[in-house]
Amino acid sequence: MITGSTGFVGRRLSRRLRDALPAGSRLVAAGHSGAPNQQGLSEIQIDLEDGASVAAAVAEVRPDLVIHLAARASVGQAIRTAGTTWAVNFGGSLALARAMATHTPDATLLYASSSEVYGGAFGDFPVSEDTVPEPLTAYARSKLAAEMMFADVLDSCKLIVARPSNQGGAGQDPRFVLPSFAEQIRAGAAEIHVGNLSAKRDFLHVDDAIDAYMSLIAAAPTLPERSVFNIASGIPRVISDLLDRLLELSGSQASVVVDPARLRPLDIPMACVDARRLSETTGWRPTRTLDQMLRDVLADAAVASA
After folding, report:
1. pTM above threshold 0.90
2. How far apart are the C-alpha atoms of 299 and 11, rounded to whole Å?
3. DSSP secondary structure letters along 54-98
4. Is a pLDDT exceeding 80 seen at residue 34?
């Protein structure tokens, strides 16, 4: 069972899982009503803010593997709507944990947390899974709290925590930085409105992230009962450099304007993540180039604006 199957990562991961599952297996997409269907998936409705619906779904499906992607994923949105962020990211996760503990106590949970949990621990060097998290936002705190809660509540389930860095590619919500730039560029804007361009962030092509999740699923039977894995490129990129490259690839001559409304109250200078544990455990390596990611973002924005 996969939650968040209609999201940026979930759509891709659902397709990969559907194509990889052996005959006789069933992949169930658990999500809200009105979400677009994906061919070849069984579907069941859940509302993460309604514990009864979560419990009913788990009781009906009784999955042996749960991939929990569903969340309020925008850090900026989380700052403005902290209560809802906690209700979904922590409250929904707690409902899922209780349901799994009751109905599928021997299942495996792959939980998509975030490298945002490291927060104040980010510095001049890449953070590893041994770095003590220092979450700085409601989003990051809700994710870390869910990690700890799962470890406590799922006492007989196997728990795999993934902490992905920033991801990019086609299909991402324009509230995120790269599609925001691309959307403005493809709309022919004379000015590109931006936030903090001096920040350095670790970006990964979303399809490399999907490969990472698939590698963890394949390795799950041999992993310990509790494990944490970073998913990242390990290369910090200056946001201004990414914007410059998007402008270059598109041929845009737009000027750049800093919009105070796009600045975050807390914005760490550099975030870089060490994913060697994942590579050493599963053999995973990122294979897509930065330009592949940026071209995919631009192409998607062109389709959206057509």
Report:
1. yes
2. 18
3. HHHHHHHH--SEEEE--S---HHHHHH-HHHHHIIIIIIHHHHHH
4. no
